[in-house]
Write a structure and sequence with these properties.
Oligomer: single chain
Largest sheet: 7 strands, antiparallel
Order of helices and strands: EEEEHEHEEEEHEEE
Number of helices: 3
Number of domains: 2
Strand content: 35-45%
Bound molecules: fe (iii) ion
CATH class of the largest domain: Mainly Beta
Structural class: mainly beta
CATH superfamily of the largest domain: Electron Transport, Fmn-binding Protein, Chain A
Number of strands: 12
CATH architecture of the largest domain: Roll
CATH topology of the largest domain: Pnp Oxidase, Chain A
């Protein structure tokens, strides 16, 4: 089966957030779709291992920020490659408490607030059906599509994303993989070998140091 065919489906770039007591959580998602237009409903897919999934099942209320085309890699990485269990993702970013939800406004063209009305178990992920309660525009900017992120910005799907696929491996070249985000540094495609990179070099995707990279066999 040629799984690359699935890359022809279109996706966007979103940050979903919610709050339980004083704990703000959120993560990056690329799957969000409109299901109905009358009393509008949308659906999103979230990996069961995501902390946001666990919390959203309790709070049943969330905000979805639609990222604009100029969204920073830093913002995408923060929400895509780290867990709200360990990191306060809302530090140093522009967000506002709206309807008691921490709504990300940074690099956001619009946001949707809604209530979870059903959760559907789909093996590794859950689909959350969400009744839209409020929407607003933030920035006059086109939304970033997943294709734009992938092809123009060379972004990678986080391992827990529904669209994540293992990379094909060229076993001849020395390759090093970031253990946090999965980014691969391939000596054959770079001007400088990984070993020769300066000590303060950081992962272009998630910002961790060289020590978090492992050599692929
Ligand atoms: Fe990384």
């Amino acid at each position: 089966m040629d799984l690359s065919v699935l890359n022809n489906l279109s996706y966007g770039m979103y940050i979903i957030t919610t709050k339980r007591e004083n704990k703000k959580v959120g993560c990056f998602i690329n799957t969000a779709m409109q299901i109905t237009s009358k009393n509008p409903m949308i659906a999103i897919s979230l990996n069961k291992e995501n902390y946001t999934n666990e919390i959203l099942k309790e709070t049943r209320k969330c905000a979805i920020s639609v990222l604009g085309e100029n969204a920073s890699q830093e913002l995408i990485s923060k929400f895509g490659y780290f867990s709200s269990r360990e990191v306060n993702k809302f530090e140093d970013i522009n967000y506002q408490n709206i309807e008691e939800l921490p709504v990300v406004l940074e690099d956001t063209c619009s946001y949707i607030i809604g209530e979870v009305i059903r959760v559907i178990d789909v093996e590794t992920h859950d689909i959350f059906l969400i009744r839209v309660q409020q929407t607003a525009k933030v920035l006059e900017e086109p939304p970033m599509t997943y294709r734009y992120y992938h092809e123009i910005l060379k972004g990678k799907a986080p391992k827990k994303a529904p669209t994540y696929q293992e990379e094909k491996v060229d076993r001849k070249a020395n390759r090093y993989q970031c253990s946090v985000c999965g980014y691969i540094y391939d000596d054959s495609k770079e001007e400088i070998n990984f070993e020769d990179l300066p000590d303060d070099w950081t992962c272009p995707m998630c910002g961790v140091g060289k020590d978090k990279f492992v050599k692929l066999k």
